[in-house]
């Protein structure tokens, strides 16, 4: 399919056929999902691919027994891992330093590596650190003062950074769903679920959060609820 065909084919499917889908193909789609754009390339996400029928059934119950879950062949849980920022920033520092050495002129390498060390060594820990909202409040006060003199990002509170991580994870989920459509498979992103029970099922630590659960399968007749409906494009498109 062309990209336009893929986008048009993808629909939120609420009822799947009993026909199985290949777990390996779903895994390949998740490998494509990791290529999604994400904030500071921190990749603060994890993907839990549920293939065991009993686990799929259990997860469907935690998704409030909605038909998109109970008829699913497999499911993927997209999880945010803001708590892993320290580990991921160190990895990115190593990768960016290697990237500079492989792609920059020798005389420019030192300065560029120092910029990455500043960003991942100081800026990222400052932005992602949490302490009951106190550190986030300090960041907000600081950027409001700096913002009097130059443009600056104001969304730096602890809740703001949580939103950033969830936006990043949602981009990966969308990439996954488009990849699945390209395979002729169907999906449905679900936000209606018992997050506490899902976390216990996956044995997730306190710092992890469920972004969304995506059911997977092949659409049954009636699995798509009618024609796609969107408000007129002119209402959302603003040319400046």
Largest sheet at a glance?
A: 4 strands, antiparallel
- Please state how the strands of the largest beta sheet are arranged side by side: 1-2-4-3
Order of helices and strands: HHEHHEHHHHEHEH
- Helical content, roughly? 40-55%
The CATH superfamily of the largest domain is known as NADH Oxidase
- Give the domain tally: 2
Summary of the model, kept short:
The chain is an alpha+beta fold and 240 residues long. The protein has helices at residues 3-9, 23-33, 53-62, 67-70, 85-103, 106-128, 134-146, 158-182, 195-202, 233-236, and strands at 45-50, 74-80, 186-190, 209-217.
What can you tell me about this protein's structure?
It is a single chain. This protein has 240 residues and is an alpha+beta fold. The chain has two domains: 3-70 and 160-219, 3-Layer(aba) Sandwich (NADH Oxidase), CATH 3.40.109.10; 85-141, no CATH class. Helix content is 52%, strand content 11%. The chain has helices spanning 3-9, 23-33, 53-62, 67-70, 85-103, 106-128, 134-146, 158-182, 195-202, 233-236, and strands at residues 45-50, 74-80, 186-190, 209-217. A four-stranded antiparallel beta sheet has the order 1-2-4-3, sandwiched between helices. α2 (23-33) packs across α8 and α5 (85-103) packs antiparallel against α6 (106-128). It starts with a helix and ends with a helix.
């Amino acid at each position: 399919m062309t990209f336009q065909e893929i986008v048009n084919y993808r629909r939120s499917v609420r009822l799947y056929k009993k026909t199985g889908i290949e777990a390996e193909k779903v895994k390949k789609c998740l490998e494509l999902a990791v290529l999604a754009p994400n904030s500071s390339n921190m990749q603060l996400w994890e993907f839990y691919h549920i293939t065991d029928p009993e686990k799929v059934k259990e997860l469907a119950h935690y998704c409030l027994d909605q038909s998109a879950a109970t008829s699913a062949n497999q499911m993927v849980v997209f999880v945010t891992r803001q708590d892993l920022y320290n580990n991921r920033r160190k990895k990115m520092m190593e990768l960016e330093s290697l990237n500079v050495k492989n792609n920059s002129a020798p005389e420019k390498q030192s300065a560029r590596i120092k910029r990455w060390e500043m960003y991942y060594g100081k800026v990222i820990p400052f932005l992602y650190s949490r302490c009951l909202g106190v550190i986030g409040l300090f960041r907000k006060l600081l950027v409001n003062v700096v913002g009097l003199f130059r443009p600056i990002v104001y969304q730096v509170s602890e809740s703001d950074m949580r939103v950033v991580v969830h936006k990043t994870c949602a981009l990966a989920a969308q990439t996954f769903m488009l990849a699945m459509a390209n395979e002729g498979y169907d999906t449905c992103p679900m936000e209606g679920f018992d997050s506490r029970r899902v976390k216990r099922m996956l044995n997730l630590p306190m710092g992890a959060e469920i972004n969304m659960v995506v059911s997977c399968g092949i659409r049954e007749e009636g699995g798509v609820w009618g024609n796609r409906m969107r408000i007129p494009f002119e209402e959302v498109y603003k040319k400046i």
